[in-house]
Structures
1.
Amino acid sequence: MYTLSSLEWDRVISEIMNCRKCPLYKNRKNPVPGEGPINTDIMIIGEAPGAKEDEEGRPFVGPAGKLLTSLLEKIGIKRSSVYITNIVKCRPPGNRDPTDEEIAACLPYLLKQIEIIKPKVIIALGRHAARTLFKQAGLHWRSMGSMHGKVFEGVISGVRVKIVATYHPAAALYHPKLKDVLERDFTDVIGRLINNIRSGFVEERERRQKTLLDFFTSK
């Protein structure tokens, strides 16, 4: 049975798959709309697909994806339980950075994805993802060096969300010192944030169940 949100989701994915809003469609093999459940409380948002992602039509499946998967495992999160996507859905030639024009053309798709998923936490990987998401949340972005590994809160597409920016796994593969920083951001900040939020969800659910049980047993 299709719900309104699932119909909206199918529509936005179809639009991404057929998009020609910017020149990137001319050289792509496969658009990469994203991957994961749409009822998750966590979104991971990178910058743009690379060569391996363009081949498979899936996000973070190359070496950077393997690092991301291991980082999630270190904090007790299964990759299959989060939604992973990018600011830009098609690969820029030569894996160059996405341009402002390409980001602007693709941004409505991401905003719609956020609106439908309604995540509690967004992890922004890389400076382009971070500055774009911070701007949408009404937050001032300075630099990755000064703002990584900190928890911010804002509203994107009508969804109140906590945002943590950190370095892109691809950058960490080329710069070993960044890998240590990335790992600390995940273990010391992101993992704790997710655990605290999910523990709160469990406590609230248990409180409501207990209240209902008390109500019926008091009758």
2.
Amino acid sequence: MRDAWRLAVGTLTVLPVPPPRVVGPRTAGWAMALAPAMGLLTGVPVLVVLLVLHGRSSPLLASVLAVAILALLTRGLHLDGLADTADGLGSGRPAEQALALMRRGDVGPFGVVTVVLVLLLQVAALASEIGSGRGPAAVLVALVVSRLALPLLCSRGVPAARPDGLGSVVAGSVSRPQLAVAAAVAVLAVACAGWLAGDGPAGVVRLGLAAVPALLVAAGLAGHCVRRLGGVTGDVLGAGVEVAFGTCLVVLALT
């Protein structure tokens, strides 16, 4: 389990940790199952910033700072995956060429436009929640739900698009018990967020229901990539996190 923690923290956060000694399917599966907990970990600094800025700045400024801090805490890894996935899918090339394009270090027009639009949606939706006084609960739930997408997309039966890279390590590694553990952490976090927000059972239900479309969008993206590219990659997993995070915030802003 220690190696799983090291892999999860080292991959999903900017925190320095020793590398795992052994990375096998079991370690990879538990690392992905711990992803919702990593969402809670990265959410702590964001919550502190939102609480400090409450009543001292505009919701838009607080939202921009929150999203920027999240990018720093994750090294921009998920955003990079989003950009590369958009470039690969948007290229219209065969799977092999699209995967080669995704491995390049530069970002093409599809990637730039996609990242800009997704960030704008995230900032606008979070600003709306902050303005209504529900920002901390919304960002906490969106972080946990978006990280729950990782064990979902790495469940047994989901193939890797290529034999190397992060995707090949974690694809298909999450068993049903591990997925159940990840889901339990997410459910507990949503319940606590609703309770802390003081909205009562109705607030908890509202937060929980926002998880459904977020996970469906991430699963839909992964399913398209499996059909289009032959499987998932680390970039696809990062893209899944970002679209789930944005979808969750947008749903909350509209409800």
3.
Amino acid sequence: MQSNHTFTPSLIEAKYIKRYKRFFVDASLPNGDIITAHCANTGSMKGLLSEGASAWFMPQNDPKRKLKFSLEMIESESGALVGVNTSLPNKLVAEAIAAGDIPALTGYANLKREVKYGTEGKSRIDILLTDDNKAPCYVEVKNTTLRTGDAAQFPDAVTTRGAKHLDELMAEVDAGNRAVMFYLVQRDDCAYFSPATDIDPVYSGKLKDAALKGVEVLAYSCTVTPEEITLKTSLEVRI
């Protein structure tokens, strides 16, 4: 399994100070300068926001951008590096499927991303797999950063949007199609995946309903370094 994302240009290390207004993170560079970076992760990032934790940022050279850095990963309370960029999982999972690194999702001739679907066509599925010889496969990808005990867990905050996605996947199963809920765990210190029932019991209950309905649930861990994030291995799913 070799699917990976290499950081180019190289990431810059700094010490995390604080997060505010959801999208802003302050950090201290080794020379003492303070930078303000964009944070794409809108979840709670529970267990990841300890002041003084090492964090890594991508320099942004776009002159139109107000913030010149983006938060990519941070050292967790357990000491593991955790990828927090929510725009990365879809790309990494799509490339892994195309490379044949996810056995459960091989055998399709075509892969498309961000395809409109649903009863009103207002939603977008992260990955759509099609083939003339089988029903289409709808794959929803969730970035997963929370660790509780030995478990990777999702969500880390209440998510009505996530529950809606499960409803849409169940509708595809009802229509005779294949549907997959894929949790990309951007850390390598978890033994299995389970829903975070204590954080969002509604979502957790709906995930159980979806699995009973026939929505397949997959979870994969990643090896995370300041140089790259690499798909590692499948995790047992306990729902």
